[in-house]
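Example 737, ligand beta-D-glucopyranose.
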Amino acid sequence: MKLIDKVILAGLLAVSATTVTAVTPVYLNDDAPIEERVSDALARMTDEEKVALLHAYGKFASSGVPRLGIPQLMMSDGPHGVRAEINWNDWKYAGWTCDSVTAFPALTALAATWNPELSALYGKSVGEEARYRGKDVLLGPGVNIYRTPLNGRNFEYMGEDPCLASVMVVPYIQELQKNGVAACVKHFALNNQEQWRGEIDVKVSDRALYEIYLPAFKAAVERGGAWSIMGAYNKYDGEHACHNHRLLVDILRGEWGFDGAVITDWGGAHDTDQAALNGLDIEMGSYTNGLTSESKFGYEDYFLADPYLKKLRDGSLPDSTLNAKAANVLRLIFRTSMNRHKPFGSLASPEHYAAAKAIGDEAIVLLKNNGVLPLDTTRNLNILVVGENATRNLNEGGGSSDLKVKDMFTPLASLSARFGNVKYAQGYISGRPRYGKEDLIPQSTLDSLRAEAVALAREADVVIYIGGLNKNGFQDCESTDRREYNLPWGQDRLITELAEANPNIIVANISGNAYAMPWIDSVPAVLQSWYLGTMTGESMADVITGKVNPSGHLPFSFPMKLDDLRAHAAGELSYPGVADAEGKNPRQEYIDDIFVGYRSLEKDSIKPLMPFGHGLSYTTFEFGRPSLSSSTLREGQTVTLALPISNTGRQAGAEVVQVYVADNHSSVPRPVKELKAFSKVYLEPGQTKIVHIDIDPSMLAYFDESTHSWKIEPGRFDLLIGSSSADVRASLPLEYR
Ligand code: BGC
């Protein structure tokens, strides 16, 4: 027994039974204000107990205060479902038989729905699963901005636009947390690529930081009320993000008033002084190389464990840092593990499958259709399905978001259920999902799979191609970036030859990233699907057969080629960064500044392969003439945009009305236009609705570095209303005075 424990024990034994009263201590009283509970608990705790709150004591757990009956925090990845149990003290899966879950669509898919109500349903459903599995903190959602299509982790984030990501992240958090499960919004901040993620030092202008990279985190904190935030692995301005003074102290707590706990990414802490002074609260995953290897270090060796206690004792670090951190963690505990009002949750329920299906249905994006889609199930078509993703379990791999699913509807199974006897050819092979590694596929293997598929394509009425990327290393997978923009494993050649053999080909790719489409002109229809989880096949089959009318819109642009984006055109320093002669200390500069995604393409007048916001339907929509409640806007006011929109086709469907703001008279460079609001509208055939969208002055502002504040220059702005960034249907001038 440690000396301190002996002292406590002796004190307790000295208390006579008659002095023990039945009064509930304030910290245990749910009805007491949370800050009173925090102060009460703190006053009862020793320094050792406070320090114990601040670091892991298992791979996914941090300690409570056992003596006071304050429970530990149980954490889990996130963000697309609750990860299978991992051993307490190593990284192997524990092999439980009761931890199979619903896999929900990846966050890119959620963003592609452009439907905040589905984000609420997502948060509610995944929160119920987390609750049932006994988790207090779900490690997600992720809102890093899509800066390059090579980022291996884009599939876990919500696209390239700060407005879209901000609107979509808030309901997820709010509904998740109603279950007494904290969101841990990640990865704060600037973790926009996986290459060198642990050490790369990112340099970015304040303007790009505030306009592009921070808004979704800010919305998560201020509007979503997130109870925890995960620091990123990378550095920003020379300091690791997990203990970065500017990000965590100045911005997160200072500017946004965050009162939750900052948790490191696993292995993201590097220094006791910085961890103590720069706003970190809970250190996880240190000394394990982040993910794989164990070492001789124990949890007490963590930067925020014994080394911290030592410095507190010798006075080289102030006690105030300890109390502030312990208070932040206690607050998180009271909200989650010690919340007596939380529900019990549910797992892999029909309701959760239905939620996953509803999200998947609205996420799939119809990119091109010359009329071949939807396919008629009554026509007795001779259908050939080609592509590995038609049969693959795409919840496996990808890194920490890997999920063990209770059920999985593959596209081939779901299509077979609808069409009867469907033929299948694999077409290509990719190897196993392996973190940071890839299998080398011999060209001869690819050649013979291709030849087999092409021969079968000649005999089919329709070919449905289901390929894309997967969650193997160097694809859509954590820890590595993609090596190329084109589809891997010879798919471009395969699709081209299939289209030559049978022009009646539908390409329905699954990925979390954009890719080149050199075959686009020779295929009549292209669907973009995502990692849709358990119900992948069901959503895809329903869209292909027209039971579901597609209504997804792209949450990021597909450039024709990488160099069309300023992030790439600006050279190595911009992406992936440059290292020193020994290959160490990589650094990078976001030379593209605020010109990310469509902001970059439009500024340079480069036509994208598929524009941001694009998505077709099986029906047609007509935008009427928009009007504004006032043509002038002043500080503190809002004006309302009204737009009549009609379904002019024969099928019920949904359109996304997108409102972009253009400032053509600015004294600083501005994007050609920027998304500032949107609304998804459901319309029966022949139905017309009037969409109302409020426009407030913040939508006109840019971040002025010289005054460190948002600035609106009086004068004329234009509101551009459209169905994608490249399909603007109407515009209205708006005067700001
Ligand atoms: C990832 C995090 C994840 C954590 C725990 C890290 O490597 O970057 O997103 O939550 O591991 O698995």
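Summary: Residues 116-132 form the longest helix (17 residues).
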